[in-house]
Amino acid sequence: LPNGVEIKKSKIRGELSEGMLCSEIELGLGRDATGIMILSSDLPLGANLGEALGLKDTVLDISITPNRPDCLCAVGVAREIAALTNQKLRYPRLTLSEAGDEIHSKTSVTVKDPDLCPRYVARVIEGVQIGPSPFWMSNRLEKVGVRSINNVVDVTNYVMMECGQPLHAFDFDLLEGGRIVVRRAVRGEQFVTLDGVKRTLDEEMLMICDGVKPVAIAGVMGGLNSEIKEDTKVVLLESAYFQPAGNRRTAKQLGLETEAAYRFGRGIDYGGCVSAANRAAQLIHKLAGGKVLGGVIDVYPAPIQPKPIRLSVQKVRHVLGTEVQSPQVIGYLKGLELHVEEEEKDVLRVTPPSFRGDLEREIDLIEEVARLDGYEKIPMTLPKGPPSSEVRNRSLLLEEKTIDVLIHHGYHEVITYSFTSPSSWDFLGLPPEDPRRTHLRILNPLTEEFSVLRTSLIPGLLEVARYNLSRKILNLKLFELKKVFLPQEGEKLPTEVKYLAGLAFGLDRELHWTSVSRSVDFYDVKGCIEDLLEALHIKGVTFVRSEDIPYLHPGKSSKILLGTETLGVIGEIHPQVSVHYDLPGRAYLFEINFEELVKGAEEEKRFRPLPKFPAVYRDLSMVVDEALEVGRVTESIWKFQQPFIDEVSVFDVYQGPPIPKGKKGISYRIRFQAVDRTLTDEEVNRYHEKIIFQLMEIFKAELRQ
Fold first, then answer.
1. What domains appear along the chain, each with residue ranges and CATH number?
2. pTM of the model as a whole
């Protein structure tokens, strides 16, 4: 036997025995060890025990989509099969005999929050005898993954799996005041659930209470203080409809994903509460004895009325492309237990049943017709009309190109929370008048660290950098292209603007014997931005030194301008900010208003033929004040509008002997090229000398010998 007992010949009271009468536990079929297992008298002698007890049954695992909670039970699946096979559905037989007093003389139900509990049904069964469930019930429950507990609790689970209505059974004698009150919890109120865990509640959670205290978290889990025990004699049976969104929130916040919460959170059949309670009362009476009190308490102050849907059969034919006729459509819908009336020829008025909350629009009904008529009947046809050329969203194309450029430079894309801490701006040193300190606070934040909508991507990137550094990732390049929420003058709600931000520190590449690594610097980050501007065909962007960006080093930061408008900032992170976020050495970041930046991107691609004639190069080295920005000189050369200048680049910047103190040397290479001929040395020299003269005049520069 499964318990290790070996059956062998033995004498009992002088008689030779070659067999044994076994209990469920000895056969490994259940937990009942009180006596031998009694089989039905209808079973023929010699029948296979496995087949007789349904041990060879097949368990089907069905993936139910979130919009079909009506199929989370045997009846729901059977209803679908009946409709698909054009069979009549046979519901479980309900024969309930009532006795004793009326339920209203025994208890009462008060619902203080009908928004979260639109309907509450109760029944009472007296004189029950708690014990193990019969094998057929415990076996079926265990096959669907539900542990057998006792006959009363098993009935509630059995009915839930049978008809989809979660139920709960209370020990009526443990309900103080002998009544039920449905109310919201009090913030900070504590409650011990059936799993023995003490849980802290808030005012958004719905509780089932007696006259004094909570006894269950509505639609989620019952409490230890009212559970069914071996000495329970009177059972109060709950069958209710709880508002799905509120139930989902409670279950998620408490971390309790029970079978009941799974169903309530998706929406159950609000019209089936009474029938489910009656079915459970019938089974409890059958398996645990006792008597079912007369009547039922049904608190349903505002009955939910299904909304009729107008369905055009012509629209069905148009959408599906099939020649389905009105009688067929009516037959399909009635097979799903929908109420159908003909308003006029080929126009139907369809009222969904209470268990089909997913049917709200005409297209939902058309989908049901397509499903039952058969998708294979929908003809395959070629599209009519000329093919349309695909027009991709310009903004998305620019975003994809931006991401490609940054990844090419070794940056990794991150996605941070849209919520941040209001103290982030203190860590960045933003002054009180900075508009980024004006943020929108969340009504129900998870924590104070995620309590406001971000107005910058920088705090999120700094937190990601700190997280990676704590895990010994010392070389890092990050970027994020997402929205921030900036205040609008005179408006309560912020405007959403897409920003691009990046952060880099450590070595420019991982150590490898094939190459030499060096530390990332300002020009690496600036070069990445310049490559991005070139890839997006954006011209007119300049970098202007700035000392008033509080979270950047005052001598190593710049504003990014498009014309005269500031698009963003770039520079080395301020040492105080680096210390707060535990950044090692020097780290660099940039942040750009991406939406304003891409306004300057060229709409059309312009073809530029490869040059047919050779270019001529001239180098220019000069000594200037060390405070002069190199970019200003480059910009001036382009502004001279000398013909044939094709490219200007800096190839050397030097300070030290023999350059005088307070000065620096800058070396430029200028490329001259014509599209129609080869330039002569005389032409190039003439233009080059004009450039030298103008630079010396503007910047008081000297030629470097």
1. 1-56 (no CATH), 98-299 (3.50.40.10), 309-373 (3.30.56.10), 394-600 (3.30.930.10), 616-703 (3.30.70.380)
2. 0.57
